[in-house]
Amino acid sequence: MGALARGAFTPRQGIVETMPHLSGIWETRILWNTVGDWTLAVVAFLATFTFLPLLTKYIALRRKRWHEANTSQPVAVEISTLLVERTGRLFIWSVALFFASAQLVFPHRIERALEVAIVLIFWFQVGTWAMATVRFAVGRRQQQRAGQQPVLAGSMEIIIFVAGVLIWTMALMLALDNLGIQIKPLLTGLGIGGIAVALAVQTVLGDLLASMSIALDKPFGIGDALAVDDIAGTVEHIGVKSTRLRSVTGEQIIMSNTDVLKSRLRNYGRMRERRSLFQLNLIYDTPPEVLRAIPQEVRRIVESQPNTRFDRCHLLTCGPTALQFEIVYFVTAADFYVYANLQHTINIALLELFRERKMQFATPPLAPTPTIPSAHLDTRSG
């Protein structure tokens, strides 16, 4: 009792005495802000940088399970989960930095540097989202038109390239506008400079526009067999500037897109059926009853083969040295090897028919052997 009367220390007195001390620490200023402000900023940064990665990882895992189970989702859900999955770590870091910096006060230069960094990262992420949306739309288009994959394979790359140029240009312009930079004078300067650049690289721009025309009009696709004037080959790649063909002899042929579109194309890759025309030349001594029977015999031989449709067989020409039959039939398969095998089999069957009927092919007369005039002979002996 005596000790208490003399003012001895009590727990309650210790708490009361330490409160002003803690309050002083909380109000202590470090780098233009108090300890309390720094504490709130750190808490906001850690909370944001912890919650957002967990959320994106969870949504990405759910999306992966949907694809593994082949579960279809509404388009809005597909796009939303795709954009969350495409959210970069740098963007999450900038969001956390934004919430943390909102609790603090910095000098103008530091605030301006933070603002520039956050704005640039934000619009970079927006461009990434836009490109992911374009690729999603292209992939969905390819799935809907699965039967035209070779046609779409080359054109989709061109569409994605052009869309990428437009998206990143718009993202850069909007980022500069958000930073307070006047973009109208910049656009004017770019327009004047663009005219000069366009005149300097008009060939490249012509090929670029030609590639867009190929992408939109789709005159051919990867895997199609083309004949471009006197050049023939299979399309291997359709690029922004050139189209690459693989010729039948093995070498790669590179042609500019402008030259391809200016030429007359024969697209054998989209051939539904192949028309075959050939002639039979018989000697004039062939009996008329045999000539009358030939169309029916040829029809029988052709129709006995698979993937064929007989059209006609007529004695059309009585030539100077032969009776000429013209035969036309269609191969209902577009593959050249199918046609070659069928023609091979039909030719052998016709030879067997001619041997059986004792018919003879007409052969052109041999050219006379040139003789040497006697005046040019060397008659000297020895």
Secondary-structure blueprint of this entry?
Layout: H1 2-5, H2 11-26, E1 29-30, E2 33-34, H3 35-68, H4 75-85, H5 89-101, H6 108-144, H7 149-178, H8 183-200, H9 202-217, E3 225-228, E4 231-238, E5 242-247, E6 252-256, H10 257-262, E7 265-267, E8 274-282, H11 288-303, E9 308-318, E10 323-331, H12 336-357
Helix pairs in contact: 3-4, 3-5, 5-6, 6-7, 7-9, 11-12
Q: How many discrete domains?
A: 3
Count of DSSP-assigned helices: 12
Average pLDDT level: 77
Helix-strand topology string: HHEEHHHHHHHEEEEHEEHEEH
Distance between the termini: 166 Å
User: Spans with pLDDT under 50 lasting ≥5 residues?
Assistant: 1-19, 371-382
Structural class: alpha+beta
**Estimated helix fraction:** 55-70%
Please compute the radius of gyration using only Cα atoms: 41 Å
For the secondary structure, the number of strands is 10
Gross geometry = elongated
The largest sheet is: 5 strands, antiparallel
Beta-strand proportion: 15-25%
